[in-house]
Write a structure and sequence with these properties.
CATH class of the largest domain: Alpha Beta
Strand content: 15-25%
Shape: globular
Bound molecules: coenzyme A
Order of helices and strands: EEHHEHEHEHEHEEEHEHEHHHEE
CATH superfamily of the largest domain: Thiolase/Chalcone synthase
Strand order of the largest sheet: 1-7-6-4-5
Number of domains: 2
Number of strands: 13
Largest sheet: 5 strands, mixed
Radius of gyration: 19 Å
Number of helices: 11
Structural class: alpha/beta
Length: about 325
């Protein structure tokens, strides 16, 4: 079994609040707050990159694990907004960090990316293929938002969260991870342009194909139904009751989705990590940022059960149960 031995996170300094967005698109602080729970989000400054955010979050995670960059043997970056299509953002991070003993690769499962990464990371450690692994979820969503589309630009933000994983010594660690995909609904949330299907052209740019598109309301309904089932089956798999959970750390897409999951599990909101009011939806970064905040605030202690769950483009959904 693997265990998280260090956490770290980084969010850019620039804050865009709902009132700033009122000046850009036909929206209101009231609509955004009521429908999503989001009050503000961060955006990365021009000239800074995804791997820069990974670097800051990684340094903090390494420090909290008491490790040096050269101790790391594998780096996984979960992202859908990497520095460039190739090389991987993980390879660029490896260089910036000076983690010369680490192999490095990216994975993309959109908002479920961190938990997909955690599942892969856990398997590397369980098989003995990795001893000290750095996993990061990091997104520069702001660069892929259509600032003329009020249905998406109010939702997303930038940020990065990192964890260090090592083999567990006792019975505490990642108990199980669960991954799911339904690719039939790939077009519910997608970024159609810029890949090999639709390379950049003046037409694709004119048609605004290089921005995130989302069928929000349909996604919302599926997310609520799916996440309840996912949370219950993850707990059942481990013979843990919802009442035994010390903390639920959900992906931060919409406060109404988070509250619905908590309510169906009968978990009070003071045992649920929420930070989307400050950062919006940071996709693969939302769970590791929230985890870092919860750890630093002393809200989880050794032996606590912590449930992580996410839902996103693919469609993908994933969970992990941790005995902290
Ligand atoms: N400001 C003001 N009005 C807005 C708006 C905005 N920013 N965005 C949409 N609206 C309008 C719509 O145009 C629509 O108007 P109409 O009724 O005149 O057509 C109305 O508000 C309701 O839109 P709808 O999309 O049905 O709202 P909603 O309650 O579903 O909330 C989301 C929209 C996107 C916040 C919500 O559906 C959501 O969070 N979806 C899930 C996202 C998710 O989990 N994604 C997976 C991870 S990325």
């Amino acid at each position: 079994m693997s265990r998280i031995t260090g956490t770290g996170s980084f969010v850019p300094a620039k804050i865009i609040d709902n009132f700033d967005l009122e000046k850009k698109v036909d929206t209101s602080d009231e609509w955004i707050t009521e429908r999503t729970g989001i009050k503000a989000r961060r955006t990365l400054a021009t000239g800074q990159t995804n791997s820069d955010m990974c670097l800051e979050a990684s340094k903090r995670a390494l420090q909290s694990a008491g490790l040096k960059a050269k101790d790391i043997d594998l780096i996984i970056v979960a992202t859908m907004s990497g520095d460039m299509p190739m090389p991987s953002t993980a390879a660029i991070l490896q260089s910036k960090l000076g983690a010369k003993n680490a192999a490095a690769f990216d994975i993309n499962a959109a908002c479920s990316g961190f938990l997909y990464g955690l599942s892969v990371a856990d398997k590397f450690i369980r098989t003995g293929a990795s001893q000290k692994l750095l996993l990061i979820g990091s997104e520069v969503n702001s660069r892929f938002l259509d600032w003329k589309d009020r249905t998406t630009c109010v939702l997303f933000g930038d940020g990065a969260g990192a964890v260090v994983l090592e083999p567990a010594k006792g019975k505490r660690g990642i108990l199980s991870t669960h991954l799911h995909t339904d690719g039939n609904m790939w077009d519910f949330i997608c970024l159609p342009g810029g890949g090999s299907q639709l390379p950049p052209s003046s037409k694709s740019i004119r048609d605004r194909m290089h921005f995130i598109k989302m069928r929000g309301n349909e996604t919302f309904k599926i997310a609520v139904r799916t996440l309840e089932k996912l949370a219950l089956s993850t707990l059942k798999h481990n013979n843990v009751k919802p009442s035994e959970l010390a903390m639920l750390i959900p992906h931060q897409a919409n406060l109404r989705i988070i509250a619905a999951t908590a309510s169906r599990l009968n978990i009070p909101m003071d045992r649920v990590a929420v930070n989307l009011d400050k950062y919006g939806n940071t996709s693969s970064a939302s769970i590791p940022i929230a985890l870092d905040e919860v750890v630093k605030a002393g809200r989880i202690k050794d032996g606590d059960y912590v449930l992580l769950e996410a839902f996103g483009s693919g469609l993908t959904w994933a969970s992990a149960l941790i005995k902290w």
